User: What shape does this take?
Amino acid sequence: MEKGALRRLLSRRPKWLLGVFLFVLGGTAGFFTNLLLNAPEPKPMLEQHTGQYGFINPLLECENSETFIRRELSQFREIIEDKVEETIEEGKAESIAVYFRDLNNGPFFDVEGGEEFLDVEGGEKFVPGSILKIPIMMAYLKQAEVDPSVLDRKIKFETSLPANQYVSPSENLQSGQSYSVKELIYRMVVYSDNNATWLLDSNDTIGYKRRVYNDLGLPVPGDISGREYTLDIVDSAAFLRVLFNASYLTKDASVLALSILSRTEFIGGLVAGVPPDVPVAHKFAEHGSDGGKQFHDCGIVYYPDYPYLLCVMTKGKNYPALIATIAEVSRLTYEEVDRQMKAAPSKN
Assistant: This one.
């Protein structure tokens, strides 16, 4: 049959065929629409780890789980929300953000309080300050995976930065003396020494610090065109998460980083809220300006068999009140975790 004849035949097809086609098309669309609307909610993800190894518990995989958000976790969040609201009403802080995460299984929540949050899309931003000493440490440990000798390299200290820290180092670098990168990392974290930080940061000639930020999907501090560098609380806690999961550095390097963080001298904030025999790998931070003060503390609390990440970031008028606020949130968190663990059915 010629093509012209075929076209003429098709053009004379009964009109009822068009009706049948539209009926079938409508029914099919309705079926799939109903299927989508009534589809079960996707189960949340539950993290699976290989098992505790020193300060870390390497991440193995994530799987769906019905038990991701437990009723107890919801009640726990309400306790923290009430404390945040009460603290702001009493004038002890102007803004507070709290981030909690069960590091073995993955459940988490974050709480924000303060008038500023009402106008901030995506949550409040804070100046992370000394929390950014963690990625500097990670940058050198990452470089040491390729060239271990980098940790023994000596750097000479000559000029001090202005001493303007509220929590000042108990030990200071000596002018004219050379220090190994390994020792500078220790002083930068344990004593929160800004001079050690400056030496390490200015001698990162290969650019490993930029690589850490890029790999974690975070903006690089030097790329913000002169604006004050800020992060929300979830991003501020990201450095600790990847260390605990050993998902960025090697296992040994991750253990080393967290063991150094566990030696931090500052015992206010998170540490003040837990028993003295419970290790806390953490980094505190302070930031002061004419517009007010900020104090933060982010760390991993190694409750036996139930390590958790707690990050508290605050803004207010004076450091002592902010530090006390963090300690109180830490105490409430530890007590609630302790209560839940003691009430949980025995595995035996």
About this structure: Residues 1-49, 60-69 have pLDDT under 50 and may be disordered. Residues 32 and 38 are 10 Å apart (CA to CA). Strands lie at 45-49, 59-64, 95-102, 108-113, 154-156, 178-180, 280-289, 292-301, 308-316.
